[in-house]
Write a structure and sequence with these properties.
single chain, Rossmann fold, binds ligand GMT, N-acetyl-alpha-D-glucosaminyl L-malate synthase BshA, Glycosyltransferase_grp1, Thiol_BshA, Glyco_trans_4-like_N
Length: 377
């Protein structure tokens, strides 16, 4: 395939969409494409030197004439500048609002026929899509893009139902870099956390937003802990943290729940875990599930959004109804007390990651998409 010049815009701070955008950029750069990140700060996963990657910072100045700092206009201006200066073939933006709309404006400002690819990650549809003051702009961003992708079939159907765009949408799943996420057992880490050999380890990783229902994770764990020795690792931080700390104390679980805060090397934490719980109310895909599965950890998730496209019930984990903490605990106990089932699901989890979500497969799907866009122009 011809080597392309690709601009990427995403939210550069912590979050699944920023992770996917940055990891995609890194892997495309390794394949010889020239990648230009156009973001408000350095994407947090751009943590190692990769040749072919360039960073263009969007500066948003605040003037007293503005009630709100004009991020969107500053972004569009920077995109237009990079399109012209670098002669970009493709501008791949993550999120319809504001990024797709900014890309359309930038293409117009630059007067160059750059291809626009928009990836929808969830919140832009599952939250903003319900806001009638924004849905018109979301539809505009989608329809003016040359190609639009969603990270699950579920999000694709939700987008069609809510936004009804006159535009085809392709599903391209999330992926992980297998060089970072693999079974990497460290007995020292267990000892460091004072986890005993007979204790099973349950893990939850999120940004502790309300939609993640971390309280259901703790309630399910209380059932599990009642029946067997176990520890719960809570990784991440966010608005619900105080409530969760109180819940853990009120259930008398302080000794068995470890609050680890935000962590960089989660693959090592997954590798000492026996089970992952993700009991969200909204989840377009659930990248953290894939990260866990790539480290050989079976998962239990809710019957919501894209989660059932990642967890195949009874094969590589279990699916339970939202808020049904008893069912979650039942499945968890079945898995944690039966080594045969656990081994089978662990192998199936690893197999799913390499069959359905392998980075080389997903990156090729994006390359094919870019190729189609360029041939359309
Ligand atoms: O889950 C979050 O709160 C972060 C959010 C984001 O915007 O980064 O994640 C979304 O995008 C990820 C990457 O595609 C998906 O794996 C997450 O499921 C999705 N989150 C939601 O839909 C709530």
């Amino acid at each position: 395939m011809k080597k392309l010049k690709i601009g990427i815009t995403c939210y550069p701070t912590v979050g699944g969409s920023g992770v996917i955008a940055t990891e995609l950029g890194k892997l495309l750069a390794e394949k010889g494409h020239e990648i230009h990140f156009i973001t408000s700060s350095m994407p947090f996963r751009l943590n190692r030197m990769v040749p072919n990657i360039f960073f263009h910072q969007v500066e948003v100045n605040s003037y007293s004439v503005f009630q709100y700092a004009p991020y969107d206009i500053a972004l569009a201006s920077k995109m237009a500048e990079v399109i012209q200066k670098e002669n970009l073939d493709i501008l791949h933006v993550h999120y319809a609002i504001p990024h797709a709309v900014c890309a359309v404006l930038a293409r117009d400002m630059a007067g160059q026929n750059v291809g626009i690819v928009t990836t929808l990650h969830g919140t832009d549809i599952s939250v903003l899509g319900y806001d009638s003051s924004l849905s018109g702009a979301i539809r505009y961003g989608i329809e003016k893009s040359d190609m639009v992708t969603t990270v699950s079939e579920s999000l694709k159907h939700e987008t069609i139902r809510l936004i009804q765009p006159a535009q085809d949408i392709e599903t391209i799943y999330n992926f992980v870099d297998e060089r970072e996420y693999f079974p990497n057992k460290s007995s020292e880490l267990k000892a460091y956390f004072n986890i005993q050999e007979d204790e099973k380890v349950v893990i939850h990783v999120s940004n502790f937003r309300k939609v993640k229902h971390v309280e259901d994770v703790v309630s399910s764990f209380a059932y599990i802990r009642n029946k067997m020795p176990a520890k719960l690792l809570l990784v991440g931080d966010g608005p619900e943290m105080n409530n969760i700390v109180k819940q853990v104390a009120s259930l008398g679980l302080d000794e068995d729940v470890l609050f680890l805060g935000k962590q960089n090397n989660v693959s090592e934490l997954y590798s000492i875990s026996d089970l992952k719980l993700l009991l969200s109310e909204k989840e377009s895909f659930g990248l953290v599930l894939l990260e866990a599965m790539a480290c050989g950890v079976p998962c239990i998730g809710t019957d919501i959004g894209g989660i059932p496209e990642v967890i195949e019930h009874g094969l590589n984990g279990y699916i339970a109804p939202l808020h049904d903490v008893e069912s979650v605990a039942c499945y968890a106990l079945k898995l944690l007390t039966n080594p045969d089932i656990h081994n089978r699901m662990r192998e199936a989890a690893l197999e799913s990651v390499s069959r359905k979500f392998h980075s080389s497969l997903i990156v090729s799907q994006y390359e094919e998409l870019y190729d189609k866009v360029i041939n359309q122009h």
